[in-house]
Amino acid sequence: MGPVMADYQLYCFAQSGNAYRCALMLNLMGAEWEPIFVDFFAGGETRTPQYRTEVNEMGEVPVLVHGSKKFSQSGVILTYLAERSGKLVPQGDDERLEALRWIIFDNQKVNGLLGPYRFLKNFAPTKPDPAVLTFLKGRIDGSLSIINKRLATRQFVLGARPTIADVSLAGYLYYPAEEFGFDIAKDHPAIGQWLDRVKALAGWKHPYDLMPGHPLPGR
Ligand SMILES: N[C@@H](CCC(=O)N[C@@H](CS)C(=O)NCC(=O)O)C(=O)O
């Protein structure tokens, strides 16, 4: 008999907050899963024809494999996992759409901007143009303020219960403040308190403890 495979495989790397959403969800579900390391930085693996042909035509991480099924887009992966496991699943049609609304906002305007900002500031091979960082930071501050306001009156994004909308929003928010050059939890206290609540869920782990590739060689 060959080696027993875990139920789920996740293409990921430690510095990816987009992948962290899915890794965290798998852990919160208590799933049997294993990471497949993607050499994003040194190897430029997501830009190779092989990756785009065999793994994801969009050239992105994360990708989830479950038996014969394969998905990209963390929002789709979170939805699939929640519906299969019944964990962190929005209840009813209204809540399902409400979760989707926040996941899209997060992908586009919260973590969708924090990811590139942190990449430019911390990992890019050349020094970033300060004007680009200033532009992104302004947009990020605006989006984080919207989230902070919402979380000031709720335990979790949709209300009293955690759902995949919280897992999505967690994306980049546990990475060290030094990697951004600003402290999200301090600057936005309701987000800080919510991060502590998510951290208290059974199965929570820090992205650097959950996915391979940290620290980057030479750092
Ligand atoms: N909306 C996507 C974003 C995925 C994404 O941008 N992943 C990054 C890694 S953190 C990536 O693979 N970028 C490659 C590229 O943009 O070329 C998701 O949530 O899955």
Compact summary:
With 219 residues, this protein is α+β, with helices and mostly antiparallel strands. Helix content is 52%, strand content 8%.
Description:
By secondary structure, the chain is an alpha+beta fold. Helices cover 52% and strands 8% of the residues. It contains eleven helices and four strands. It has helices spanning 17-29, 49-54, 74-85, 92-109, 111-123, 130-151, 164-170, 177-180, 184-187, 189-199, 207-210, and strands at residues 8-12, 33-37, 63-66, 69-72. Helix 1 (17-29) runs parallel beside helix 3. The chain is globular, with a radius of gyration of 17 Å. 35% of the residues are buried. The model has no long low-confidence stretch (mean pLDDT 97). It binds glutathione (GSH).
- How far the N terminus sits from the C terminus, by CA atoms, comes to 41 Å
Binned, the helix content reads: 40-55%
List ligands, each type once. glutathione
Approximately what portion of the residues adopt beta-strand conformation? 5-15%
- Give the strand order of the largest sheet, numbering strands 1, 2, ... along the chain: 2-1-3-4
- The structure class reads alpha+beta
